[in-house]
Amino acid sequence: MAGLLANDSEQIDRRTIRSICDAVGERLQQSLRPEPRLPTHLEQLLDELKQRDRDSHWT
Predict the structure, then answer these.
(1) 35-54 average pLDDT score
(2) Cβ–Cβ under 8 Å, residues 6 and 12
(3) What residue spans of the chain are helical by DSSP H?
(4) Numbers of helices and strands, H then E, in the chain
(5) Cα 42 from chain centroid (whole Å)
């Protein structure tokens, strides 16, 4: 993908797209309040998922 067409006469390069995405991500992080801690059961499931993901990278 060399660039996205904004309209018929303008193209946005990858560097600009990356900058826009980064800026949007930062704004979302600032505006979304983090949830309080997850319930213990969900934390355990997420930990198990992370461990399985790590293990699958080594096989």
Answers:
(1) 91
(2) yes
(3) 14-31, 40-57
(4) 2, 2
(5) 20
* Cα-Cα-Cα-Cα dihedral sign, residues 30, 35, 36, 41: negative
pLDDT computed for residue 4 by the predictor: 53
CA distance 59 to 56: 5
Compute the distance between CA of residue 51 and CA of residue 59 in angstroms, rounded to an integer: 13
Token digits of residue 57:
């990278």
Instruction: Name the token pair of 56.
Output: 């699958």
What lies within 8 Å, CB to CB, of 14 at 6+ separation is 1, 3
* Single-letter code of the amino acid located at 41: H
Express each pLDDT in 4-19 by its tens digit.
Answer: 555 555 788 999 999 9
